[in-house]
Amino acid sequence: xxxxxxxxxxxxxxxxxxxxxxxxxGTRAHIIEKGATLDKLFIKDNKGELIDVLVGHDTLDGHVNxxxxxxxxxxxxxxxxxxxxFTIDGIKYNVTLNEKGITSLHGGGEYSxxxxxxxILGDNAIKFTYFSPDGTxxxxxxxxxxxxxxxxxxxxxxxxxxAVSDKKTVINLTNHAYFNLNGTxxxxxxxxxxxxxxxxxxxxxxxxxxxxxxxxxEGTPFDFTTEKTIGRDIENDxxxxxxxxGYDHNFCIADYDGSLKTAAVAKADKSGIVMTVKxxxxxxxxxxxxxxxxxxxxxxxxxxxxxxxxCLETQVFPDSPNHPEWPACIYDAGEVYxxxxxxxxxx
Length: 347
Known about the structure:
Helix content: under 10%
Number of strands: 27
């Protein structure tokens, strides 16, 4: 195992460094300080060749000016909050409306835009830390956050999230990696096979806000309990697919109890790479690159086109601050938020 550090670029006069963790198999995770971003992830395919399975950008300028959250850590509240409003102990909060001026998305982009501080831990882990001052983007509390990336010799990339606030607040963190297990720039992901360990999902309205229902997946295009290709039902007439322009929905992990469980398994049709996503969180968001239109260049200048990648974002349910009946997202002052997600690769 080894870790190397290099200059990736500068942002507002501050150096932004890149770190590479490499294991005995040659698997390499590249993480940059801007957004604590998982920038590249090289995995051996069925020919023994290392391919980058992340769709995104290969320059700091791309991450800053053309990003759609590729690979970043998002917070203080990942996903959407209806009208940017929620109430804690009778106090009403209004947070940044950064999606069409009507929805708060990914905490207003605060965590993903920040340059985090990095600390190398041994020969296979890097800890990124960030301090969010009280009131930033409207969220209460001075919050100290950390995300630790650890790569094992078994080709498991673990993300350990920790946060603590000095005020009662909402916290929901995730990594927004865009995967194409055939390799970045290799075309669409519609023939990837996918299984999701979820018997329910949270339907959305026309602006992608959960309706409050928990709908069984059985008998719908959202049933991934048995393996199928991502593309099999994606053009179905089902209203939820129309609302999301494809899959852009939270799936409720079956038998959630706070322990580490398999959330999803994705299998590439060409490279043979299999990715198993494990989490101790109650939900995972499947997003299928519905808004890419080929106008934004990605790595190596290849345009990012519709369905060229998919995301599996582990999380509490979207808009949970307004649904106290759902798994908790509100933390007391001094209470530690701690959660773990693992991306395990095999063939």
